Amino acid sequence: MSGNVLVGQSGGPTSVINASLLGVVSASLESEDIDKVYGMRFGIEGFLEGRILDFDRVSRHQLDLLRETPSSALGSCRYKLREADLPRVFEAIEALDVRYLFMIGGNDTMDTIHRVEGYCREKGYDLHGIGVPKTVDNDLFGTDHTPGYPSAARYVALSVAQSGRLARDMQRVDKFVVHQTVGRDAGWLAASSAIARRNPGDAPHIIVMPERPLEPEGLLEAVEATIRKNGWAYIVVGEGARWSDGKPISAARGVDDFSNIEFGAMSGSSAAISLHARIAERTGFRGEFQVTESLPMCAADRTSPVDREEAYLCGVRAVERAVGGDSGNMVAIDRVASSPYRVEYGRVPLSKVAERTKPLPDGFISSDGLDVTDAFLAYLRPLVGPLPTYAELGPWREPQ
């Protein structure tokens, strides 16, 4: 089927989302079945406003730079498509003779492309829609992992490895650190901090994940025990972590258009700040908190090479599938082996991706709910890649 391509990016960015965009655009430009390639400016919201980019006007040099460019080059949005919007979307697609639709994003993005593809089908318009996965949260259903997660996990691991040494060496000043990661409903990123450990006593000591709601008293006791043992404590907390009564550790600010909880980052409202206040009040010790917010989503200098390559290939596979007649599916990464690492590219229906998420499995969480298992570390290592080795000057002469 001959026609044009429309591609968009939605939701939060990653450091490799533009590699997926490059994969879509490059494969489309090389296809004999595709005439022109258009990009949505600011996702489906901008498309409704008539904002599009003609990739014929983009130089090959600028396209090649996409592979290592952070954030969302087309611009993004978090707009929930309404039923009343669908006729307008259809008219714009028809006017541009778009026959292949690709959207790069997470659950909500897959819901958008699923609805647009279904509406066009109802209207008798031949449109092939394929989703390209993206999210640092790693909570997309049907794929071993999501492009964007390995690089964000590497960012977290490097941050904890480096700030953990700072915390260890400054324990006479600050007895504890609370480090917050993103992750609304899933603890994949918080869990990734565990790979920073090289030696016993290294940070992180405690990992608090949304999948394991905790009693405040139990957590505080664990922190006190860690300080007694090591002289300091390093706690990693996912932004969506909850207490056993279901209340977020963070003070939530409300919900977005997709009914997703929005966690606060203002003073006194984030999970890290809230937990820091409880620990300081309980122990009387001075401590630090670290809230990186969206930095793991756009740190091109910490990108995982595996992640960049897989993100690109997901874009390429999406075009190959659509031109081959596939529609209504998302490209999925299927792990064949971890050592040596090898994957294949499968597919999962958009309807299934849109309606559910993928939490951290029980087998990846320790029995006390405050750490991860060796199985998780084996899962993560090939995605993150090797971390640097730092000097160890001990053993120390201690007073007799």
Give the CA-CA distance, first to last residue: 82 Å
Q: Work out the number of β strands.
A: 13
Q: Helix and strand succession?
A: EHEHEHHEHEHEHEHEEEHEHEEHH
Domain count: the total is: 2
Shape: elongated
Radius of gyration from the alpha-carbon trace, in angstroms? 23 Å
Which residues form runs of ≥5 with pLDDT under 50?
A: none
Under the CATH scheme, the architecture of the largest domain is: 3-Layer(aba) Sandwich
Topology:
Blueprint: E1 3-9, H1 17-30, E2 34-40, H2 43-48, E3 52-54, H3 60-65, H4 86-95, E4 98-105, H5 107-122, E5 128-133, H6 149-169, E6 176-181, H7 188-192, E7 206-208, H8 216-230, E8 233-238, E9 252-255, E10 261-263, H9 271-283, E11 287-291, H10 305-323, E12 329-338, E13 341-349, H11 350-355, H12 374-384
Helix pairs in contact: 1-10, 4-5
Model description:
By secondary structure, the chain is an alpha/beta fold. It folds into two domains: 3-134 and 301-355, Rossmann fold (3-Layer(aba) Sandwich); 149-299 and 360-384, 3-Layer(aba) Sandwich (Rossmann fold), CATH 3.40.50. Helix content is 36%, strand content 19%. It contains twelve helices and 13 strands. It has helices spanning 17-30, 43-48, 60-65, 86-95, 107-122, 149-169, 188-192, 216-230, 271-283, 305-323, 350-355, 374-384, and strands at 3-9, 34-40, 52-54, 98-105, 128-133, 176-181, 206-208, 233-238, 252-255, 261-263, 287-291, 329-338, 341-349. The strands form three sheets. It has a seven-stranded mixed sheet with strand order 3-2-1-4-5-12-13, sandwiched between helices. A four-stranded parallel sheet has the order 7-8-6-11, sandwiched between helices. Helix 1 (17-30) packs parallel to helix 10 (305-323) and helix 4 (86-95) crosses helix 5. The termini are far apart.
